[in-house]
Design goal:
about 260 residues, alpha+beta, BirA Bifunctional Protein, domain 2, SH3 type barrels, 7-stranded mixed sheet, 5-stranded antiparallel sheet, 6 helices, globular, binds biotin
């Protein structure tokens, strides 16, 4: 049974995000789906929604996100956001999470958290129009232990408890949410630029041969100030911005 530090989180985040609330549910289809439903229904107050179990968790690119109750942390945060430029948001979020958890956690463009060549956490960002502004829903799934069916996954999975054996879902959540709220405020005013240097320090693709799902191949050369992945290909330097492509280090045969 997880002890959720809902009040401690509320106390640190409410001063940053007025109207902020924390909700913990035993089960829901998907925390992202639920907060997108609420956003479309006009509920725009900042909220953190944590689910102990998801019956229809979603990943990027239309994939499923499967997580075992007790062996993972699944939550979404929803708030109105109005940056001048949205590019790089998912990278800034990934950097915030990695920085909060451990210095050895890397980032695989655009926003997976990696440790020892395996995926530790994923991020799904969705937005809904609210007149001139937009509501953003940031969904985060962190493996505490590697999923039991990890061998069948496209990307091998790692668990946070491999790095931090005493870590539980509540403690991880407490570490993550306030820095995430600060990251979002910084992003809203300054875009991705304040995060570029930090991202580069954790970029696991830097200097590696990569293959994109659209067939492009080359050597990853970091990210630019807008969060685009730079890939040195036979045809020259390409900027990869599409959220529809996935990228793998070339040694990875799980394409
Ligand atoms: C990915 O790596 O493809 C993104 C995974 C995001 C999973 C989280 S779990 C909480 C939130 N609710 C969802 O349905 N998805 C996100």
């Amino acid at each position: 049974m997880t002890r959720w530090p809902a009040e401690a989180i509320w106390e640190t985040v409410a001063p940053l995000l007025p109207g902020f609330t924390v909700e913990i549910l035993p089960e829901i289809d998907s925390t992202n789906t639920e907060l997108m439903r609420r956003a479309r229904a006009g509920q725009t107050e900042p909220v953190l929604l944590v689910a102990e179990s998801q019956t229809a968790g979603r990943g990027r690119l239309g994939r499923d996100w499967r997580s075992a109750p007790g062996a993972s942390l699944t939550f979404s945060m929803s708030l109105p956001l109005a940056p001048a430029d949205w590019s790089g948001l998912s990278l800034a979020v990934g950097l915030s999470l990695a920085t909060s958890l451990h210095p050895d956690i890397g980032l695989k463009w655009p926003n997976d958290l990696w440790w020892q060549e395996r995926k530790l956490a994923g991020i799904l960002i969705e937005t809904a129009a609210l007149g001139a502004a937009r509501q953003v829903v940031i969904g985060v799934g962190v493996n505490l232990a590697p999923p039991p069916d990890a061998d069948g996954l496209r990307t091998p999975a790692a668990g946070l408890q491999e790095l931090l054996p005493a870590m539980d879902a509540g403690t991880a959540l407490l570490r993550l949410v306030e820095p995430l709220a600060r990251t979002l405020k910084t992003f809203e005013t300054g875009g991705f630029s304040p995060f570029v240097a930090g991202y580069r320090e954790r970029d696991v693709l830097q200097g590696r041969e990569v293959v994109l799902s659209d067939g492009v191949q080359g050597v990853a050369r970091g990210v630019d100030a807008g969060g685009a992945l730079l890939v040195h290909t036979a045809a020259g330097l390409q900027r990869v911005t599409s959220s529809d492509v996935s990228v793998r280090p070339r040694s990875d045969t799980h394409l």
